[in-house]
Design brief:
By secondary structure, the protein is an alpha/beta fold. It has one domain: Alpha-Beta Barrel (TIM Barrel). Helix content is about 35%, strand content about 15%. It contains eleven helices and ten strands. The strands form two sheets. It has an eight-stranded parallel beta barrel with strand order 3-4-5-6-7-8-9-10, surrounded by four helices. Strands 1-2 form a two-stranded antiparallel sheet. Strand 5, helix 3 and strand 6 form a beta-alpha-beta unit. Helix 8 packs antiparallel against helix 11. It starts with a strand and ends in a 7-residue tail after the last helix. About 45% of the residues are buried.
Length: about 325
């Protein structure tokens, strides 16, 4: 496993990180989830990403239990705040940030997280209030660093311009061979301001693994047929997308790697990406994904892949 520095922070994160959206505490049985976390450590994955809203606290609770026996210095832990936790608890107000960080720490059974992220931008709260509240979280020792997810370039620039507050070190956008929107403005703006990308959905929720053949039903046991995990990926299962992904298979074969490794290596070719977040319901999936770290692939193969998906990619 290779590691990269996270923005202007002192954190060195594994190029492949373990996420918990739709999986741990929600869609994956407890023993299988624990096996995945254990395997992640075996593979050198040191960065674990979660959020308070995942399972309305269930993912954090699971991680708190499964990580309890490990030295706190042996992993980097990130969580997020914004989405509703109840009918009245949501957003990035000072009151909510103070309340939700304490609740997250209690569920995670730790006195601090390494990275506390705004899960989205809150248009109902002044940015100054949000940044002051996040700064207080850092200065109280409850988080070491702060980040954001899916903020617009204008929102990011406004945060950078505020004086006297803690600085963001991470951005968590959706980014993959099929979704390249961050390249235009978010990545250049981040790189110029000491912010790295932590990428979510680098495999387009599994579509870039090649496991979903065009013109055929989704395979049994896959995320696409799961009631708890499949709803969010249906827009990726368009026939034209699946046809394009199928055409990528010879390129991965030429590179001597799996489709997953090819797609993850494509994401990691970008220097501003510190880590690609993957989900896993089985330890073998992590074995496959972790092998993408440090993988050297001919840029000409990537260029051919980009040309193949040019007509179906989203978010440019």
């Amino acid at each position: 496993m290779k590691y990269r520095k996270l923005g202007a922070s002192d954190l060195s994160v594994s190029e492949i990180s373990l996420g918990s959206w739709l999986t741990y505490g929600v869609g994956v049985e407890q023993d299988a989830a624990r096996a995945c976390v254990d395997r992640a450590f075996d593979l050198g994955i040191n960065f674990i990403d979660t959020a308070n809203v995942y399972g309305r606290g269930a993912a954090e609770t699971f991680l708190g239990e499964v990580l309890a026996g490990r030295p706190r210095s042996s992993y980097i832990l990130a969580t997020k705040v914004f989405f509703p936790m109840s009918a009245t608890d949501r957003g990035l107000s000072a009151v909510q940030i103070a309340k939700q960080i304490d609740a997250s720490l209690a569920r995670l059974k730790t006195d601090h997280v390494d990275l506390y992220q705004c899960h989205r931008y809150d248009p109902d709260t002044p940015l100054e209030e949000t940044m002051e509240a996040l700064s207080q979280v850092v200065r109280s020792g409850k988080a070491r660093w702060i980040g954001f997810s899916e903020w617009s370039p204008e929102q990011i620039a406004a945060a950078f311009a505020l004086p006297g507050v803690e600085r963001f070190v991470s951005s968590q956008p959706q980014y993959s061979l099929l979704h390249r929107r961050p390249e235009a403005r978010v990545i250049p703006l981040s790189a110029a301001n000491g912010v790295s990308q932590i990428v979510w959905s680098p495999l387009a929720q599994g579509v870039l693994t090649g496991k979903y053949p065009p013109g055929a039903a989704a395979p049994p046991g896959s995320r696409a047929v799961s009631d708890s995990m499949g709803q969010m990926m249906q827009t990726w299962l368009r026939e034209d997308i699946l046809q394009a992904v199928h055409k990528l298979k010879p390129l991965a074969a030429e590179a001597g790697c799996t489709m997953s490794q090819f797609a993850l290596a494509w994401v990691l070719r970008e220097p501003n990406v510190a880590s690609a977040i993957v989900g896993a319901s089985r330890p073998a999936q992590l074995d496959d994904n972790a092998a993408a770290s440090g993988l050297v692939i001919d840029p000409a193969l990537f260029a051919r892949a980009e040309a193949i998906v040019a007509g179906v990619e989203r978010g440019r």
